[in-house]
Automatic annotation (TrEMBL):
Leader sequence segment: none
Region listing for Disordered, in residue ranges: 252-276
Entry-linked PROSITE patterns: ABC_TRANSPORTER_1, ABC_TRANSPORTER_2
Name of protein: ABC transporter ATP-binding protein
Organism name: Novosphingobium album (ex Liu et al. 2023)
Pfam families referenced in this protein's UniProt entry, alphabetically: ABC_tran
Tagged with keyword Nucleotide-binding: yes
Every ABC transporter domain range: 9-247
InterPro entries according to UniProt: AAA+_ATPase, ABC_transporter-like_ATP-bd, ABC_transporter-like_CS, P-loop_NTPase
Source organism, top-level taxon: Bacteria
Amino acid sequence: MSASEDFPIVVEGLTNAFGSYVVHENLSLKVRRGEILGVVGGSGTGKSVLMRSIIGLQRPVTGEITVLGHAMAEAQGWGEIDIRSRWGVLFQGGALFSTLTVGENVEVPLKQFNPEIPDALRQEIARFKVQLSGLPEEAAFKYPSELSGGMRKRAGLARALALDPELLFLDEPTAGLDPIAAAAFDKLTRELKETLGLTVFLITHDLDTLYEICDRVAVLADRQVIAVGTIPELLALDHPWIQEYFNGPRGRAARETKDRQLTREGAMDKPDKAGA
Ligand SMILES: Nc1ncnc2c1ncn2[C@@H]1O[C@H](COP(=O)(O)OP(=O)(O)OP(=O)(O)O)[C@@H](O)[C@H]1O
């Protein structure tokens, strides 16, 4: 297997700056195929800028970004269009077109990248993606303003999945959702990752999401990715931000919830002695 197959996203020596304000300096990160990588860091550490750099919306000062084996600096013209059809993005807030129905929103990337698909088939694909994202079929005919926040996130996800992507970028997908809707969205993300074989780059502040669905977590601080690993691996590090984040009151609460859930699942897996 080649390096690009093992690691569909490779960032090396990335520097981003806005004027004299340096957001990233010599940042490196490798995302493994098939994982959900959670990306955390304090506000303003550059998580969204990193995502925008990877998908070619932010031109770095220096550094190399390789996505699915393509060097992003060289990705221009048709080559660039081709690679952009291989990922889906759910931006913060969903970024849906308010004057289009949910179904029409999902049709936008299909029209852009596959204009040869006949109208009726394109509409059917859009309706399928809407249902795949856990929305009722009739949601395809509604406008974003007619949906709840959780449904709008799912509509954004449906659009991100329009082109059967290999990579899925999610920027704070559970922000603003109530805990039940957030947990349902997490479950959907995990199920889609498993059934569709996606690699997921997931920016979040949601500790429950990290514990529930992320295979590894990358921590941004001091203009770099200072650590990448499973949560137990990160907990073993003595970086002050990591300790405060995962061992602070919210971090402990999320861990206790996960521990309780694992204990319950373990109890259910054990044979029933009384009935044995
Ligand atoms: N287009 C831009 N022009 C100037 N500065 C920008 C631009 N985009 C981002 N920044 C700055 O870069 C820094 C990183 O922004 P970014 O949105 O990536 O942070 P973040 O880690 O995603 O934060 P949050 O968790 O609050 O969403 C911030 O200080 C932000 O103000």
